[in-house]
Amino acid sequence: MGTRNFGEVAAEDVNEGMTWAESKGWPVQGLTDSQRRFRHRFRSILYWAEGITYSLAYILGAYSHFNGGSIWSDWQSTTIMAVSFISFLYLLPPIIEKALGLTFSFIVDILVAADILLSLVFGEMLRVYETIPFWDTILHVFAAIQLVLLGFVVALKGDRKRGQVREDSYKEELVFAFMFSVCMLVLWEMYEWACDNLFLANMQKAIPYDWQDHVLSEGNLDSTITDQQIADYYRTRAGYAYALQDTMKDLLVDALGALCGALFIKVLLHKRPSLGDNIIFVDPYEMGLALQRKEGKARRKMKRSAARFTWHSTK
Known about the structure:
Blueprint: H1 11-24, H2 33-66, H3 74-86, H4 92-100, E1 103-104, H5 106-125, H6 128-131, H7 135-162, H8 171-199, H9 227-235, H10 237-240, H11 242-271, E2 280-281, H12 284-314
Antiparallel strand pairs: 1-2
């Protein structure tokens, strides 16, 4: 889809878009035609690359799972399928942009792509989680900081709408951002628990990495792992608390990462007070297009309603 010139959007739509943005508390930043063309090309390449990667990961995981663990073990294959499925949330930013006329910074696309790439491709498919013990910790900190940034933008928008922004401290916005990040990552742990229980994945690490290749499709360990080995391991604290320790460690790291992210944003705000305005904003041109799309949909809906009314009247 090519990028149209700015003049093709009606001036009244642009002005209405700016009025809407100000009434809702969104910052307004006008982009040039060249900036829009670059954004369009960059994001098209990025989204296509992500879509192909996640689709391929899901297909390979499914192939491995239904062929007796031909590439990865059954549990690892199921985990890859679960992670690649949720990875399609990368489509949320462009969907939200299209629906609401908002504009997301490149940093949003890059951070989302990096997070999923490091967890899915490196962590699960290349099994870096097993070779680098603290890899999972790094990714949880990384995700917590991203969510703090998103929570800060959302809180800043809400307070700006009500005229309650105190730019000298941003205390309320940062507290909200911290809680937002922690709550979102608690939901992620719930997703891991659901996948483990419904689809026999191993996202919460109920089974040690050394035994993953010995898990059968129904979730039981094969005969190469003896009952005595299982009993000896799960009799110890390291064994019976294995999955619990993984989950609680993740939650603790999430909270610490969110706290570090909030403090980091506070420091950045002293140097770049406009930080919160550069992540999600309104480009009057894009908002004008969104308003035109809404008007077009409304007109088509009215025409369909009129056609149905005419058809019923002539019967």
